[in-house]
Amino acid sequence: MDLDTPTAPAPGTRSGRPRLAIVLLNLGGPDAPESIRPFLVNLFTDPAILRVPGFIRPWLGRLIAWRRTRPATENYAILGGKSPLLELTVQQGEALEALLNADGTAEVKCFTAMRYWHPMSDETAAAVKAWGPDEVILLPLYPQYSTTTTGSSALAWIKAAARARLEVPTTTICCFHSHPGFASSTAAIVRGAWDRARAELDPAIPLRVLFSAHGLPESIVTAGDPYQWQVEQTVAGVVARLDLPGLDHVVCFQSRVTPQKWIGPSTEDELERAGHDKVAVLVVPIAFTSEHSETLVELDVEYREEAEKLGVPGYFRSPAQNSHPGFIGALADLVRHGRTSGRTLCSFAGPRQCPKQHKDCPHAALVAKLEAMPGTPPERTARARTTA
Ligand SMILES: C=CC1=C(C)c2cc3[nH]c(cc4nc(cc5[nH]c(cc1n2)c(C)c5CCC(=O)O)C(CCC(=O)O)=C4C)c(C)c3C=C
Ligand SMILES: [Fe+2]
Ligand SMILES: [Fe+2]
């Protein structure tokens, strides 16, 4: 055997490059009609979603889930009784893995950790541990940070990783609301939809863009959740790249599922206004990066019917990002940035992005934790404040 000639590692052995596990964080959805109820129970008993005292939550959460089961079952029936979310997330992971492996700087494998249905964090943490990574990146598929989505998923992951004794340096990407690659790829998708809509529509009819994001109870935003502010940042970034001067557009919020007051204006109110103004609408889902029940049913079926009833003279919908190459490129860029940042928590641009009134920004929690540590020198917290 020639000892001077390097040999390729045998299949199944280490490549010599560090192993990087990317954990895609997503919401999850039922995989069969019988999983709709337990999926909803998981969702409504999450303390990040149902903010009532702990002793009431299991009861109230189950009651709300029970009441929601029928409408949710009707919605998922239109999609064949299940959510397409896992399949689409796995496709995004495969595309991202291929792109990053081509860099040659790490051996990359993507995993999926869903918050409310399988594969959930415990299963995924065990799989990640079995693979033996040197580094982990947590990458949410939510562009905007909310305590109810990325915050809840990251917390579930931290607990599951501890249970699995997965002790590997981990970087969490908290948000990418205004990442230039994300904004440009979204603008390219929206521009395509705009051009198709304009080609179909009578030139005399004006077209308004409704950027429709998943809503949140107003109390969660008032408490400090940065989501609404981040949604507005995304819309500004996308509009700036659309190259449509004077574009008539609005940010609105869909999918209200509880009786509390939710942030507005609601997408339904905006449809009513469009009917009144006699303008056609292009609805753009802006807070979630794959197709799911709320785009395929709520937007494509329910709101379309509503728009017709309200006399809206045209109804069009822009697709979600899914595995659009520009979007996957943006995800790859976020991972590269996270790896070299040396941070455990990292926004798309490194330091904290949210103005300080949004105190549920996870970077604020990091500073609070440092401040609470006995004997932390004041200059350390001051530094964390500026760089967190
Ligand atoms: C109080 C309830 C809810 C809050 C707050 C909430 C926040 C939130 N959700 C998403 C994205 C998705 N939610 C999805 C489904 C879904 N969400 C809720 C409730 C709240 N969401 C329910 C009850 C459901 C189940 C479906 C239904 O009953 O209609 C999904 C879809 C999953 C799928 O179809 O596969 C997504 C995506 C965001 C971005 C968000 C806050 C920022
Ligand atoms: Fe939701
Ligand atoms: Fe933030």
From TrEMBL:
This is Ferrochelatase. Pathway: Porphyrin-containing compound metabolism; protoheme biosynthesis; protoheme from protoporphyrin-IX: step 1/1. It comes from Falsiroseomonas selenitidurans. One of its GO terms (molecular function) is lyase activity. The gene is hemH. Transmembrane segments: none annotated. It is found in: Cytoplasm. The keyword Metal-binding applies. Catalyzes the ferrous insertion into protoporphyrin IX. InterPro entries: Ferrochelatase, Ferrochelatase_AS, Ferrochelatase_C, Ferrochelatase_N. It catalyses: heme b + 2 H(+) = protoporphyrin IX + Fe(2+); Fe-coproporphyrin III + 2 H(+) = coproporphyrin III + Fe(2+). Keywords: Cytoplasm, Heme biosynthesis, Iron, Lyase, Metal-binding, Porphyrin biosynthesis. Fe(2+) binds at H214, E294. Its EC number is 4.98.1.1. The lineage of its organism: Bacteria, Pseudomonadati, Pseudomonadota, Alphaproteobacteria, Acetobacterales.
